[in-house]
Amino acid sequence: MRLIRGRTAVVTGASSGIGRAIALQLAGEGVHLFLIDREAAALDETASLAANQNVKVRTEIADLSRLDLIANLVAKIETACPDIHILINCAGTVTYGPVHLIDEQTMRNLMNVNLLAPMELIRALLPKLIAADEAHIVNICSIAGLVPVKRMASYQASKYGLVGFTMALRNDYWRETFGVTAICPGFVRTPMVEGLKDRESHRSAPQLPDFLLTSPEVVAIETVDAIRRGKGLVVISLFARIAWWVARACPRLLDYASREGWRQRGSLR
Hints:
The chain is an alpha/beta fold. The chain has helices spanning 17-28, 40-51, 70-80, 104-131, 153-173, 191-194, 216-229, 238-249, 251-262; strands at 8-12, 32-37, 57-61, 86-89, 135-140, 178-185, 187-188, 213-214, 233-236. The strands form 2 sheets. It has a 7-stranded parallel sheet with strand order 3-2-1-4-5-6-9, sandwiched between helices. The protein has a two-stranded parallel ribbon with strand order 7-8. α5 links the parallel β5 and β6. The chain is globular, with a radius of gyration of 18 Å. Residues 264-269 have low confidence and may be disordered.
């Protein structure tokens, strides 16, 4: 996008973590915001911080696991925003542990929030985005959408799907004035990661060392840069880029390292 200041962006998952960081980064660039999340108090805090940058900020409380409510959400967005230039799908949830311990409703909610809600929001808002003189769609994916990670099969299914959908959108719709980007961060220091729980009660989720973690602010800076430069796929953090390179260049090595690295955690029970 040649011009970002004065544009309007819709950001989901804006109450904390990456979503909040992106919202504040955009506000600092002079972008007006329509922020969406299900956590009302935290969303109001994000809106207040963004409004300090002298931009217009609107908010909407929405549970994106409820696909039957998406049409109503879209109607509210279109009423509040005559023009939409940027759509950032950042809302996400995660499960950790073996698939056989994840109940059906939890898995459905995860797929709805991480994959199906972004797909439906894009489908519904595409006419407005296409009609804009410049527009950009960003889907916050994950390195887990490119590289297999142990005990995260359901989460990875949603993120692999989102990466694939984003790349297909770029193939179908990209032009000089219309960009589509998949952002794939490595591990990010967010409440979602810090609150990770293993589905097996006798296990604890791994505590990641600081050198493997990046910050939401770094992801936000890279996201705005991707919008400006029209990037298609952005992998964030040195660890994530190395893992992605190994997965493409030597998948058997990654498979071996993953299996051996987790052997100490024992077999499934």
